[in-house]
Amino acid sequence: MRIPAWTEDELVLAGALVVRNGWRELRTRDPEVQELSELLRSLPLHTAEARALPGFRSLDSVSRKTTDFMTNHSAYTGKATRCGKPNPAHDPGFHQA
User: Can you give the pLDDT of all 97 residues of the chain as single tens digits?
Assistant: First the structure.
């Protein structure tokens, strides 16, 4: 089983962290990342099987999501992340509609 995509509710919570942090990413040692990871792992938004996966909404995945938000902000001058979107160059079976 693969880790499920983030729901809109999960994205809103992660995005709120970034906004409160001045549109800067938060790292895994940040207490807010730790709290959000624990919350997301406890919410019944996904099956118990999905929530039991080791990487499900881990500290690393929550921190990465904050990086996605930061790098896609209009004021960010570096290269934006893909935000979890498939990369056609790495997936020959991917076809955009």
Answer: 899 999 999 999 999 999 999 999 999 999 999 999 999 999 999 999 999 999 999 999 999 999 999 998 888 898 888 776 644 444 444 444 4
Closest CA to 61 of 85, 94, 80, 83: 83
pTM, to two decimals = 0.82
Hey, how many other C-beta atoms are within 10 angstroms of the C-beta on 93?
6
Domain positions in the chain are 16-71
Let me know: does 69 contact 15? Beta carbons within 8 Å: yes
Beta carbons within 10 angstroms of residue 58's beta carbon: 17
Cβ contact 36:17 at 8 Å: yes
- In this structure, which amino acid lies at residue 57? R
Residues 6+ positions from 90 with CB-CB distance below 8 Å: none
**What is the residue type of 69?**
F
